[in-house]
Specification:
The chain has 238 residues and is α+β, with helices and mostly antiparallel strands. It has a single domain (13-222), classed as archaeoglobus fulgidus dsm 4304 superfamily (archaeoglobus fulgidus dsm 4304 fold), CATH 3.30.2170.10. Helices cover 25% and strands 26% of the residues. A nine-stranded mixed beta sheet has the order 3-2-1-4-5-9-8-7-6, with helices on both faces. It is globular and about 40 Å long. The chain binds two DNA strands through residues 43-49, 53, 81-84, 86, 89-90, 111-113, 116-118, 122-123, 137, 139-144, 175-176, 181, 230, 232, 235. It is found in: Cytoplasm. One of its GO terms (cellular component) is cytoplasm. Its cofactor is Mg(2+).
Length: 238
DNA sequence: GCGACAG
DNA sequence: ATCTTGTCGC
């Protein structure tokens, strides 16, 4: 993918916060999506004792979810994990992975929050704005706000509230598992974002784009890491 | 001041 | 995120 815009990621936490406050104004909460034919999932994995970060993007065809393309990038990061500043840790690697991608997915799922963030600019919104592409935040836990437990059936939802405002939706993508927390990233509305997450969740808690990205990110880390990584193979399950 | 806190 | 084997439940 062509990345027309970027900025320095070599910032102090304070400078990063100011940049978030500035970029948040550019988020579009409305959807301009017609028919989705390609969607992507992005994720990153790390090597325990080092600063290595392996970022990947997996593109799937919609609605059959067949794999179309995978791209990755492995770099050194210096920014630590600070709640609220995740994009400054994973962003550089993710953008590099997108540069290595040839497909043009219409929507991208990110691991983490969209606007359900202290400054309204979680990693999904941040990347969405820089890539100027519809983006959805799919998080496994909450960073901001509260949400009642969604009903038991798959597809049940419950709003993520923050001072009376709905900033996202808790979504039950699979029965008897913890809900996912979906929020608008960029150029999409919450209803469509939730619809897409549910439409791409097939038998697992994580929607396929995110799940495939997770698996690929771990695979990339392992092959680029002959020793320090995990040696056992997934035990499987069917 | 204290606790919470995406990945 | 990462470290880890078996184990309980669907």
């Amino acid at each position: 993918m062509e990345i027309r815009e970027t900025h320095s990621f070599d910032l102090t936490p304070g400078e990063a916060v100011r940049l978030q406050e500035k970029l948040r104004a550019r988020i579009s909460f409305s959807g301009d999506l017609d028919e989705v034919s390609l969607l992507a999932g992005a994720d990153a994995s790390y090597v325990k004792g080092s600063n290595e970060i392996h970022a990947v993007v997996v593109v799937l065809r919609y609605p059959d979810l067949a794999a179309v393309e995978r791209a990755s990038a492995s770099i050194e990061t210096s920014f630590p994990y600070i709640p609220g500043l995740l994009a400054f840790r994973e962003g550089p690697a993710l953008l590099e992975a997108f540069r290595n991608l040839r497909s043009e997915p219409e929507v991208i799922f990110f691991d983490g929050q969209g606007v359900a963030h202290p400054r309204g600019l979680g990693i999904a919104s941040h990347m969405g704005v820089l890539l100027d592409r519809p983006a959805v935040g799919v998080a496994k836990s909450l960073l901001l706000g509260t949400a009642a437990e969604p009903g038991a059936p798959r597809g049940s939802t419950s709003p993520i509230l923050r001072g009376g405002e709905t900033i996202g939706m808790a979504v039950r993508t699979k029965e008897r598992t913890q809900p996912l927390y979906v929020s608008v990233g960029h150029r999409i509305d919450l209803v469509q974002a939730v619809d897409l997450v549910l439409a791409t969740s097939r038998g697992y808690r994580l929607p396929e784009p995110t799940r495939q990205a997770h698996l690929y990110a771990n695979a990339v880390r392992r092959e680029r890491n002959g020793k320090g990584g995990q040696t056992s193979l997934p035990s499987g399950g069917r």
